[in-house]
Amino acid sequence: CFDMMTADETVDGYMCPSCEQPTTAKKSTRFATFPKVLAVQVRRFEFVNWVPQKLEIPVQVPQSPIELGAYRGQGLQPGEEALPETNDQPPTDAQPEPVDESVVAQLESMGFPRVRCVKAVKKTGNTGAESAMNWIFEHMDDADIDAPDSEPQGTAAVADPAAVEQLMAMGFPQARVERELLQSDGDANRALDRLLNLSDDVTMDNVAAATDSKDDSASCSQYELTGFVSHKGSSVHCGHYVATVRHGLGTDSAWFFFNDARVVAQPEPQSEQAYVYFFTRND
């Protein structure tokens, strides 16, 4: 799975910012840092005749230590040249790209709210109903999924009010919530991670000094599976979620199965059909 995720991907029609000509490029994904806890979501559904179907494909995940160092990004290599920075912001007088109303209507007929349909069509570049539907399902849990896209006006960045309200409901002060949302490009999940892991007086200027002696992500890339969430049921529209959690690491660890209020020991955890896996860094 990690080999597939980090494999080179060919991008046809890539507009080179250096020569300003369309060309063929390759891109790949690597880890810049290794978090203490790594969450991996497995795609467990596909669309068959426009109907989401659950995939019952087993994924073999070892319980022994996993080394992910081969997937760490190494930055600019000798002989390579960084592409020039580009300004992706459109001119303030640019007209918004029209959406394909036939695709929007098709998505609305499936029960999706119009704001999600319009946003999905825009985000996928008017490439069709299937890609727009995939986008909706992939971003279903986004804090701003129901927030209409605002057109650029050349004004200062403002945190999304819905995301601000959501994070403030967890007890964080408004000023800090807005600051972390702006630092996270509006991503509520990244902002929440910063709110939980950074003290209130940590800023972008001193975050490196606050973590350089305690963060082992630069030297340690070995993980062990410590938990996973599974879905019980044959349909994506119904069923029940359960969790299996590992207490401790190595040979002294023990697995426990959580099913609502029922918790039992599970000597042989069944992780093949899980939706989300959690790995803890060994350091």
Summary tags:
about 280 residues, alpha+beta, globular
Blueprint (SSEs and pairs):
Blueprint lengths: L1 H5 L2 E7 L6 E6 L9 E5 L3 E4 L2 E4 L11 E2 L33 H9 L4 H10 L5 H10 L22 H8 L5 H10 L4 H10 L9 H5 L10 E11 L7 E8 L6 E6 L2 E4 L8 E8 L2
Helix pairs in contact: 2-3, 3-4, 5-6, 6-7
Would you kindly provide a brief summary of this structure?
By secondary structure, the chain is α+β, with helices and mostly antiparallel strands. It has helices at 2-6, 101-109, 114-123, 129-138, 161-168, 174-183, 188-197, 207-211, and strands at 9-15, 22-27, 37-41, 45-48, 51-54, 66-67, 222-232, 240-247, 254-259, 262-265, 274-281. The protein is built from eight helices and eleven strands.
User: Helicity, in percent?
Assistant: 10-25%
Which structural class should the secondary elements be placed in?
A: alpha+beta
Supply Rg. Answer: 22 Å
Care to count the β-strands? Answer: 11
List unreliable stretches of 5+ residues.
151-155, 202-213
Strand percentage, roughly? 15-25%
Distance between the termini: 24 Å
Q: Label the overall shape.
A: globular
Largest sheet: 7 strands, antiparallel
| Helix-strand string | HEEEEEEHHHHHHHEEEEE
Tally of DSSP helical segments: 8
Q: Explain this structure to me?
A:
- Strand 7 and strand 8 form a beta hairpin.
- The chain starts with a helix and ends with a strand.
- Helix 2 (101-109) packs across helix 3 (114-123), helix 5 (161-168) crosses helix 6 (174-183) and helix 6 packs across helix 7 (188-197).
- The strands form 3 sheets. Strands 3, 6, 7, 8, 9, 10 and 11 form a 7-stranded antiparallel sheet that branches. Strands 1-2 form a two-stranded antiparallel ribbon.
- With 283 residues, the chain is an alpha+beta fold.
- It is globular, with a radius of gyration of 22 Å.
- The model is unreliable at 151-155 and 202-213 (pLDDT under 50).
- The chain contains 8 helices and 11 strands.
